[in-house]
Amino acid sequence: MSAEMDAELDAVLIGGRETRPIVIVDYDNGWPDRFEELALQVKNALGNGALSVEHIGSTAVPGLAAKPIVDMLLVVHDVTDEDAYVTPLEQEGFVLRVREPRHRMLRTTEKDVHIHVFEPESQEIKDYRDLRDWLRINEADRDLYASTKKKLAQQRWSDMNYYADAKSSVVQQILGRAHDWRATSSD
Asked: For residues 142 and 127, is the Cβ–Cβ distance under 8 A?
């Protein structure tokens, strides 16, 4: 936790930083169904403006303990054209929470769903997919990630983003293996 990161968060978070406990729970078999309901809601709201909608993050990995927040990946033509997707999603009850140069994030008012919005060629899309798909098939890295999250969740964080930052070195290690796997499995 640093003044520099606080300033970065203050620049991109809509509504300011939030102190919330980090709760990690066992995998819930209902998460995929919740995603499907939400994906349909997003697709209906955006029509052809939703180039793709995918389930990402820990709730998309069967057997992985996670924060009970369904993460979604929404791909749109132009992330800066907020009228094309933010306005319709706000009409569906989602709230814009993060505005970064190449990324937006909306969430439910209950804070149990995050919709990450990117443009088609964003590296983050590949990273989210590779990490998700690798964790689905690699038990050792799935266990490493779960234990890291559980350990970090025991600490108090002034904002959830500090928790995410604290696990980033482990995520990068796993992501490196995921990229290697993807590169060799795509041949």
From this structure: no
- The amino acid at 132: R
144 residue type, one letter:
L
- Tell me the residue ranges of DSSP E strands in 69-112: 70-75, 94-100, 103-108
Q: What is the maximum alpha-carbon separation in the chain?
A: 45
Element at 151 (helix H, strand E): helix 139-153
Query: Would strands 113-118 and 70-75 be described as parallel, antiparallel, or unpaired?
Result: parallel
CA-angle at 32, arms to 30 and 35, nearest 5°: 110
**CA–CA dist 154, 156 (Å, integer):** 7
Cβ partners under 8 Å of residue 160, min gap 6 = 18, 20, 22
Kindly report, residue by residue over 119-163, the tens digit of the pLDDT: 999 999 999 999 999 999 999 999 999 999 899 888 887 766 677
H helices, E strands: number in the chain: 7, 5
176, with CB counted inside 10 A (0-12, 13-18, 19+), is exposed
pTM: predicted TM-score of the whole model, two decimal places: 0.89
